[in-house]
Amino acid sequence: MKYLKYMTVGMLIVSSVFAKDLQGTSSWNNIRFSPKLATDDPAYSLINIGNFGYWQKYDATSAHTPSGNSGGIYPRGTAANIYLDGVLVGGYTGDVLHVSGTIYANGLVSGYIGSDGTLQSGGAVRLYRIRKGWETLTFDQVRVDAAEIYETSVSGVTDAQIQLVLDQYEADWNNWPTDIGAPFYDLDGDGIYEPDDGETPGIADADQVIWYVATDADVGTTSSLYGCTPIGVEIQYTLWGYNQPGAALGQIIFKNVRLLNKGSADLTDAYVSLWSDPDVGDYTNDFVGVDTTLSLMFSYNGVADDDDYAAYGLAPAAVGYDFFAGPIVESAGDTAIFNLKKRPGYRNLPASSFGYFIAGGVYSDPGPYGDTEAAREYYNLMRGFAPTDDLDNPTAWIDSSSGTEVVTKFPLAGDPVAGTGDLDAGPADRRMLINAGPFTLAVGDTQDIVTAVIGGIGDTYLTSVTDVKNTDLVAQTLFDDLFSSVPSAPPAPVVTATPFDDQVLLDWSGLEGVAATESSNISGYAFQGYNVYQLPSATATKSEAVRIGTFDVNDGVQTIYGNVFIPEYGTTVNIPVQYGLDKGVKRQIIVSEDWLTGGPLYVGSEYYFAVTAYNYNASPPLIEDQALETALTPVYVQLKPPDFGTRYTATAGDGLEIIHTGPGQGEVSATVTNPATLTGDEYRVSFLADTSYVHVNGDTVSGTLWRLTNATKNTTPVSFFKQAANQSDSDQPIVDGVQVIVSGPAPATIIEIDEYASWPSNATLVDGSTDSHLAPSLSQTGCIWDNRAGAVNLPSYSRDYDRFDFWGFDDVVFDFGDSSVTWDYIHEGVHMGDTNGDGDSTDVIYTPFAAYRVKPFGGDTIRLFAGFWDTNGDGAWTVNVEVDEAGEEVFDWTAPTYGQECWEPIYCWQGYDVDGNEIAYDPANEEQYITDNWLGTSANTTWGGGTGAFHYPFVTATLLSAYYGPNSDGSYVVGQATDGGAAALPRAGHYDKYGVQLAVSHYFKFQTAKGNTVDDVFTYTSSAPEGSNDYKKADLEMINVFPNPYYASNSQETNRFDHFVTFNHLPDDGTNTTIKIYSIDGVMVRKLDAAANENQYLRWDLRNSSNLPVASGPYIAHIDTDHGERILKLYVVQRNQVVQYY
């Protein structure tokens, strides 16, 4: 399923998103959260790779922000649906009850229990967060992530903060603490982390992972929770998510909780509990429930509307917790899941109970903290009873929905969407928990509990519940598959934007990034195409974006359908999700209009774009989605002219002059795509024969490849690349602002069939060149060449002239000035017949042509062993005709293109000696050929059964037909040759189509296009942008300010508190600029400094040096630059100010 409407990219978790005070502990409310530890490592982080923002703290505080607010944000960047959650463990050592873990108070501390039984904390013991592909992340790809980490706006996050996030990804990856339990991909299964052997951090092929460890080993901390002594339990937390915010996977946070008993006594009658305080928007109006068929507890809004979600134009969301795998116990014949692997002889305990309590209700939060009474209350909850402190006589949950009171350990297990069964009532501030047990956690034992937090969003509060359950099915499917083939979108394209006066160039053609994206094939999902979007803001959702274009693989896959949850219907509907056009992949686009407004793009204005990649799997094995698309990564662009004092010397689309040396007939074009990045260098395209490489799409390409060198700098930007089929093929690299397209004709591409007089020297071209299909009338003798396929250059399986792709760049000649001993295509014997009328059919019949193979670029000419298919068995090469019962002439062979009768099909073979070297047909050996009477002996080649090496024919299925000679009235004879056209072959003494007798025999040359060779070199030179002092003087006069006048607002202002004007065309060459703004009476009201400036734009917030709004009126701006001065007049009209308090 897709989350097209409700996927939010980059909206901020602002400080106003909070639920309430923490329950029952005033000390907590006095804590001042610090986002950093003393080691300068982060104390907090969050899983936010998908459509769920889920905060974690290094001491196991979960779903709570550093500022103390709700920390489960769904959809990401909107309202919260979790205030706080955690894991608790309870049980007995002997007859002593223990309950430990994390609730509003925390019984755990960061750390693990060492081999000596003592708490180990600090140093490497901290929270770690890694991200797959961190090495190639760009600022744009991390901007929203950094804004969320620092709890600021996307526009407010600084480059320094973004860099810190990137640095932390790198540090956490390189210092991943596998020695204390962090998971990794153990390729050789030896349990030892060996990064030098390719082993990497991570789990379940996730895109983002958090890991940390906590323990109850601190007596004071553990006692402060529920008055219990420590168990000696160590809990390792692994959380992970997937970079698919628009798909079901992006709505899920997976969590593995590993329990290790490092104490001194077995923990018996043990239970593990997943607890949550789900505040779905407004915390005062929630419901909870459980679906026992899914092992899913969930929370949803108790009323149709919620102000927190309505602020984002959304219906209330829902949230669920799935209990995939509980603790394992021995069970013969069963198989359990442990460490995401199968363990025979065990089974996983299922969810054993569900419970809930209500702030201020009959059953409220267990307490007081620090008292074992609370431990008994919570342990009863774990066992499936109401939270009372009587362990011997617990109070059961009652389901009275059927009209009869039924004891249950799963209260509220009805269906709120259908309105049936035991349902929650009276919306309030709920808590819920789902448990598994009892089991024994023996000393030294390890148990894994696998769960997931799942978000759902519909168009009503109840369809959000449906969405949670639908997504849970996807999560369950992946777990059942043990995450062995997790579907994933391709790696995101790496996009750069180059702004111009009225255009934006978006480019994602970098070969390394393209290779990562286009070669991806993940669980059967192969790259399919790119989408380009314009966004109204950096925080826009996909539903708010406008798709500018789609560039997809030309493979017949166009519109892709998917099952999308449609909130209005409360169900999934199969609708189009991708719109391919089969027009080929492009990796660059020039945007020349504002797709949001339909108007032009304006210099100085700010725009947001995104380029995504999507893949395709026609038959996905695990999930329903056939296509998965990468998340939107907003790319910020502000239109501007060339750099100060600079002029472009070319425009996009200009073709550069190409100089070619060498014998090949290939083509090279060099087209400017980005005039801003032209270097002015000389570049050379050269070729390497018989070479192979892995193309950007993952295919291995071999043959004659090309490379691009920068001759000026002596570098090689492109080492290997395949030749394009033609000059319209966009699958060619872009280097330094120029797209280079290198195309060479495919081997055996017949470009013309020419008729010449005489052979082999002093040849005269007859009537110009002719393609015998397109212009048969141009052939002087009226000859038409055709083949059994009916068209030139069909694929190799067709019956064309070169069915087996032997010609390459060779030419083939049929010379009608000579004759040959020929062999039969079927029987491979010499053609013989009765030529003297003696009744003996052993007379050799010479065929009236010779066939040659002419190698390219001055290579050898080799006479081929010629033959034909003697379909009537008379041994002669003839136009076979019979008269049917109606007296009509019927021909054995007709040319498919024009339907003319034809001579029997010609076949020719390349000969070889016993060592496999090529040999030519030799007229001096004709007597021996006749004696041998076998192609396999004479040419040492055969394609049937017999002696000699197996070789297919070099020339295949070639037909010759003709317009026979004219009658006395000038018309052409159709049928058997008659007067004046008896021979109908281009031989001396015969007649051409004009009735003129030929003085010499003619020959036909099948000419192939000649490809690029190692002797071919193409060069071009780009022209770099130019700079001069004259340009700087001219640009100084371009400095201006807008809007001017400022009349109460600016179209670029985003709220009523944000007022500014923008100075533009400032020097951006690293020099200094100072702007002093004066009132009309000469008083300086503000000074703006831009040292080492690299930005053409500088804003004035319409405030004076005391940070107060300036008065309405005229102002003078004195702009002082290293290149000169500029004076501007500016008029400001402020909006009315109303004093509310005084």
What characteristics describe this protein?
1142 residues, mainly beta, 11 helices, globular
Poorly predicted parts = 1-19, 21-34, 768-778, 968-983
| Envelope shape | globular
Strand content: 25-35%
Q: Output the radius of gyration.
A: 40 Å
Percent helix, as a range, is under 10%
Overall structural class, as computed from helix and strand content, comes to mainly beta
Main beta-sheet strand count, sense and barrel state: 9 strands, antiparallel
- Number of helices in the DSSP assignment: 11
Number of strands: 71
What do these coordinates show?
The protein has 1142 residues and is mainly beta. Helix content is 9%, strand content 35%. The strands form 20 sheets. Strands 7, 10, 11, 12, 13, 15, 16, 17 and 24 form a nine-stranded antiparallel sheet that branches. A six-stranded antiparallel sheet has the order 44-43-61-46-50-51, with no helix packed on it. A five-stranded antiparallel sheet has the order 6-5-14-23-20. It is globular. The model is unreliable at 1-19, 21-34, 768-778 and 968-983 (pLDDT under 50).
